[in-house]
């Protein structure tokens, strides 16, 4: 749309700036708050410029034990979060790409049924099946373990569906050409299909990483041992102080740290991400 | 020994549909066979059965004397060129050509030599590092052929490889394919619906209609002596004029007015055929038939005159005449035509099969 109306331009810029401010202000406040001593927040005034406690606060949070009875430092919780997020992401992609491969390229009895059964699980997110899933995980003795954190979350109908759509656009002639070229199912998968769905994998990686990183309810339920706490759930724990003040400066540091990896993933992969969602490279 | 043998080959789909009832074909070493027919005639299915991409439900397929019905495509030692080229979009031209060899465990140096040799033959040396996306249609077509050639297979299979190219390039590639095939001497099975392509490429043609072979023969055999009205109409452009008529007391009743002597044929219903290019303009008194001109297509080298014959029984069948050079008959004009006896084709009206004419 090419229009030359100065007022329209001014207003749209203004509303964009306003939008940015609305999104950025809380982040700014968090960033500023992480550099002040705890007492700065008792006064009821929110500081808007950096204080002088940055190094102490960040150092304390990262390497000392996180406050409020959590026995491990934040970096170890970050590690847990990372293990969980990556585990979920890689697991989801691996499982869904394989099931989509089976559904699209192989003829077997009840193939359609298999697809619809997978599809129906869309209606059963963790929140819905949390009690039975907990039961299963507990019986398998996976409470307080990485596998307990990751495994129940890695089946993904969404990703299967996305890969299915992607695979269905692969022309039949390409599959046949590969067959004549002597590529068996496994070769075809790794040599042809994986490179072709590279951008889709990247897009899913971004979405699933954020999904995995932001998990709150499930880690809250399956972990009781501090060694397996994840960052996102620990923030809540740090806030629920029974006596005394909440250590806002430390909470803010933790919050910022929790926001960082998803931001990095999005920024680092945004080109591939957009490509994967928008264009089909075939 | 025949190179590729189809013995009583048939295809019945799981739903009971007979795509191909039965076909017998012996292909000699180095022969270029074209399967031609309208869409849905089973030509692609037949090719895919030879390739191993469709199962064969009846008969035997032999390559160099070995029965390959149940072998995987890769194990049959064939190579196929697809209509849409089917190049691997993420691989370079080099990798596209090398992929089949790589999968067969050929060592790197040998792959390199072979790919480069083929690239030189096809003029692709400069393009080896490009991706298929960066190539033009003709170049992609060449890469697809290169991928087939590099493996040095026993049989080449082409599935309408030129139908995605523009007219000019198609002619050029047609010549190139023929030339390459002669040079390599590889037995080739080629599918097309384009009769010009079929005529120009083939050593022998197989005209398919509804899954059975109407006629197998050299292009000129098919042109000169079509075995049925189907072949007669399919081979040659514009297609043969076919006019239903009958023989009565040794005369071909082309109409009430025009009786052409035709001894030795029993009384029966016939279809009389003549190719547009075999009709001649003549003086009015020598005319066998008169043509009412309805449209004229001047192509420079030749002129196509479309019209209808004025037959005595009130029948006015459509008729096309192809004349060399420039002619400018007026619309509505009555054009006297002579139809040389030697150029006639007669077909049985019921079976549509050729009737050997001996009326002179």
From TrEMBL, chain A:
What stretches pass through the bilayer?
A: 7-31, 82-106, 113-134, 146-167, 188-213, 248-267
Intracellular or extracellular location(s): Cell inner membrane; Cell membrane
Give a GO biological-process term: transmembrane transport
**Cellular component per GO?**
plasma membrane
Pfam families linked? BPD_transp_1
Mind listing the UniProt keywords for this protein, alphabetically? Answer: Cell inner membrane, Cell membrane, Membrane, Transmembrane, Transmembrane helix, Transport
- Signal peptide residue numbers: none
> Which part of the chain is the ABC transmembrane type-1 domain?
78-269
The membrane topology term of the UniProt record is: Multi-pass membrane protein
Q: Which InterPro entries match?
A: MetI-like (IPR000515), MetI-like_sf (IPR035906)
Family as reported in the entry's similarity comment: Belongs to the binding-protein-dependent transport system permease family.
Job description of the protein: Part of the ABC transporter complex UgpBAEC involved in sn-glycerol-3-phosphate (G3P) import. Probably responsible for the translocation of the substrate across the membrane.
Q: How does it assemble?
A: The complex is composed of two ATP-binding proteins (UgpC), two transmembrane proteins (UgpA and UgpE) and a solute-binding protein (UgpB).
Which protein are we looking at?
sn-glycerol-3-phosphate transport system permease protein UgpE
From TrEMBL, chain B:
Q: Which UniProt keywords apply?
A: ATP-binding, Cell inner membrane, Cell membrane, Membrane, Nucleotide-binding, Sugar transport, Translocase, Transport
GO term, biological process aspect, one:
glycerophosphodiester transmembrane transport
Species whose genome carries this gene: Marinomonas communis
The record ties this protein, via InterPro entries, to: AAA+_ATPase, ABC_transporter-like_ATP-bd, ABC_transporter-like_CS, ABC_transpr_MalK-like, ABC_transpr_MalK/UgpC-like, Mo/tungstate-bd_C_term_dom, NA-bd_OB-fold, OB_MalK-like
Q: What's a Pfam family in this record?
A: OB_MalK
Task: State the superkingdom.
Answer: Bacteria
Describe the location of the ABC transporter domain by residue ranges. 4-235
Provide the protein name: Carbohydrate ABC transporter ATP-binding protein (CUT1 family)
Return the PROSITE patterns for the record. Answer: ABC_TRANSPORTER_1 (PS00211), ABC_TRANSPORTER_2 (PS50893)
Determine if Glycoprotein is one of this entry's keywords. Answer: no
